[in-house]
Design a protein that fits this description.
heterodimer, A: mainly alpha, about 0% strand, elongated, B: mainly alpha
């Protein structure tokens, strides 16, 4: 247990940026879910939230995560780290698809399916982010 | 998973609810600044309340499980980062509480104006751009970020 509590100083900045990116990502994805479910008419706000918050937060979370991984040099291939990589990397594909669908929804306001698709994707990704947070915090074997 | 893992998870979950809730509330408050129709502003402020509730739950989780962690791990109660974090936690709550009460009055004004014809109002616009409210909201957010930095750097350990 004490190993987790004593951390070299050089890990602090990347860890801070990783956690900051992850928390902003969670908040921005939650806002995306809320807009898509409760205010589907606010399509421009949906696109702006994804473009100006979700994607930059993902970049900060993922690159800072890679930075700390290069410092920490975790031995083996633990499951908790794998969960983090899957949610991070597969998440980018989902987020890009979601951004394109949301943008399409602005171009075609008469169609309902784009906003519904964004609601489903963002809802699932929000759950995945909390699972990753649990795995990365508790580091189960 | 041992006790430490559970305590840390619940403490970090609280931090995610606080910071995530602040971002969520910020999205809708910022969007409200760009609107003029009271009904739209009232709706955006209603959505921002989800973030406020998340912040409230997160604040409780961070303090309860944070104090439990300090006791469980055996950190000294007088360590700089712990004392500073507790002082800043109180400050963030105070700033957020005062800002929240101003936000509630703005939301109530927007709801009343929406029910009375939904015409743009100079009073509502002024309230939305009230520098005191904006300062309290941003100030509270910055204090929370400083607490996050303290939790990671742990100065004085």
């Amino acid at each position: 247990m004490m190993v987790a509590l004593v951390r070299p100083d050089s890990w602090n900045l990347p860890l801070f940026l990783h956690v900051l990116g992850a928390t902003v990502l969670v908040g921005a994805i939650a806002a995306t879910v809320l807009i898509a479910v409760r205010a589907p008419a606010l399509r421009r706000l949906l696109v702006r939230t994804i473009g100006f918050l979700v994607l930059p937060a993902w970049v900060l979370m993922r690159f800072a995560g890679q930075w700390i991984d290069s410092r920490e040099n975790v031995p083996g291939d633990p499951a908790w780290l794998g969960v983090g990589f899957i949610v991070g990397d597969a998440g980018l594909v989902l987020l890009v698809v979601m951004a394109l669908i949301a943008w399409w929804g602005v171009r075609r306001p008469e169609r309902r399916w784009p906003v519904r698709a964004v609601a489903v994707i963002s809802g699932l990704y929000l759950i995945a982010l909390f699972v990753a947070m649990w795995a990365m915090t508790t580091k189960p074997d | 998973m041992d006790t430490y893992d559970w305590l840390l998870f619940l403490h970090v979950l609280g931090a995610f609810l606080v910071l995530g809730g602040a971002v969520l509330a910020g999205v809708f408050n910022f969007a409200a600044l760009r609107r003029e129709r009271p009904s739209e502003i009232a709706m955006l402020f209603k959505f921002a309340r989800v973030g406020v509730v998340s912040i409230g739950i997160g604040m409780v989780l961070t303090i309860v499980f944070g104090l439990w962690l300090v006791h469980h791990v055996g950190y000294g109660w007088g360590q700089t980062w712990i004392v500073l974090a507790l002082v800043l936690w109180v400050l963030a709550n105070a700033l957020g509480g005062i800002g929240g009460s101003r936000e509630k009055k703005t939301r109530e004004l927007a709801e009343r104006l929406a029910a009375e014809g939904d015409a743009p109002s100079a009073e509502l616009t002024a309230r939305l751009r009230d520098p005191v409210w904006l300062g309290l909201s941003w100030g509270s957010g910055i204090v929370i970020l400083v607490i996050l930095a303290l939790m990671i750097w742990k100065p004085g350990t």
